[in-house]
Design a protein that fits this description.
14 strands; Beta-lactamase; alpha+beta; seven-stranded antiparallel beta sheet
């Protein structure tokens, strides 16, 4: 064949391949090969599904008060949904019903997603776990605080919801950058020396969101889309872009169904402001089992306790709470509460079971999903019939 014709044929084949090959994803500027992020698990038996569906529904009707419940309830095994329930309204005056595709504010369960984004950047050598965060936020005024300390709430940094009362006009919207600027300007005393002990504090995760923005050179909502939501096919999840859609998203209500509205802290993200669904959070949980999504070493570090200064069952990993007791399987979970939104996500990792309850009407019953854990395995809970 003539050399010119061979050259034309070669270019034609390249064009065809380029048009038919799935596009590679990107991770903070690093090109990734197209891979499957969601693992495949064995299908649960019909007998198992029938038995656990009954137990899950018994719990739902006994503890969730279905006549008043506004939100989502889901139980799954190996990624297979055992049962799910949706009720109430995302906007009561407009009577917009909550469905399986309605994103609700998941409050502090957002920290799990922020952690996953951070750990993926560490996996891909764009962040260092033990690096002083001044490497990424040079204006940050306190030395010796690492990304690991932010992830595990061991930094000693004060909570922005407290120090802003003294130095910030409460009618003015607060953003993550404002939190950093206030820390740099006023140099508020740390609550304790770095890594001395555990103290849950939302400021840690607001700073992680800023670090993610600095490293990826993207807004946090866009970075989360790229790092977590798109790879895991969480198609109904997003970080609130406050000025664009705070009137359109699901609203939150107190127990009397009075709209709780938004306040000056509602622009801060990383610690909260993830809107998601029970089904999307199930995908997020499944992603934590995938070596394609997180390396084996990073998963081991995430689901490990770091605060053993005091005896007890409670501990915290990387953006995940846990209950540990010798001779029992560890119960991994995270709770959330912001305005009228309450949430609880449980990952029973010894049994690959996921339990999720979300409500946009203040409802502490969502935290009772721990009662289902002993139905699936050897978890550190005992409940009497009359409790």
């Amino acid at each position: 064949m003539h050399l010119k014709k061979l050259h034309i044929l070669f270019i034609f084949l390249l064009v065809i391949i380029g048009c038919t090959t799935k596009k590679s994803g990107h991770l903070g500027g690093t090109t990734l090969e197209p891979i499957s992020y969601l693992p495949k698990f064995e299908e649960p038996s019909k007998k198992f599904l029938k038995e656990k569906r009954k137990e899950s529904l018994d719990f739902y009707y006994e503890f969730m008060n279905p006549e008043r419940f506004s939100g989502m309830f889901l139980v799954a095994k190996n990624g297979k949904i055992i049962t799910e329930r949706y009720s109430g309204f995302s906007n009561y005056p407009a009577e917009i019903a909550i469905t399986k595709e309605t994103p609700l504010h998941v409050a502090s369960v957002s920290k799990v997603a922020t952690s996953l984004a951070t750990l993926r950047l560490i996996d891909h050598k764009q962040l260092e776990l033990n690096e002083d965060i001044r490497t990424y936020l040079p204006e940050f005024p306190y030395p010796g605080i690492s990304i690991k300390m932010l992830l595990t709430h061991r930094s000693g940094i004060p909570y922005y919801g407290y120090f802003t009362f003294k130095v910030w006009p409460l009618g003015k919207e607060l953003h993550n950058n404002d939190v950093l600027r206030l820390l740099a300007k006023y140099k508020f005393p740390l609550n304790f020396p770095p890594d001395k002990h555990f103290a849950y504090c939302n400021t840690n995760f607001s700073l992680l969101a800023l670090i993610i923005e600095r490293v990826t050179k993207k807004s946090f909502p866009d970075a989360m889309q790229e790092l977590v939501f798109e790879p895991l096919e969480m198609t109904n999840s997003f970080i609130l872009k406050y000025k664009q859609n705070n009137s359109k998203v699901s609203q939150s209500y107190n127990s009397r169904h009075v709209n709780q509205g938004f306040d000056y802290m509602d622009r801060v993200y990383g610690d909260k402001n993830l809107y998601s669904t029970a089904r999307d959070l199930l995908k997020m949980d499944m992603g934590t089992y995938s070596k394609n999504f997180l390396s084996d070493s990073m998963r081991r570090l995430m689901f490990k306790g770091y605060s053993y200064e005091h005896p007890g069952m409670s501990n915290y990993g990387f953006g995940i709470r846990m209950r540990e007791l010798e001779g029992k399987d560890t119960y991994f979970f995270h709770t959330g509460w912001w305005h009228g939104n309450t949430s609880c996500y449980a990952s029973l990792r010894s049994d690959t079971v996921t339990i999720i309850a979300l409500s946009n009407v203040y409802n502490r019953s969502v935290y009772q999903i721990k009662r289902l854990a002993p139905k699936f395995g050897n978890y550190p809970f005992e409940f009497k019939d009359d409790e």
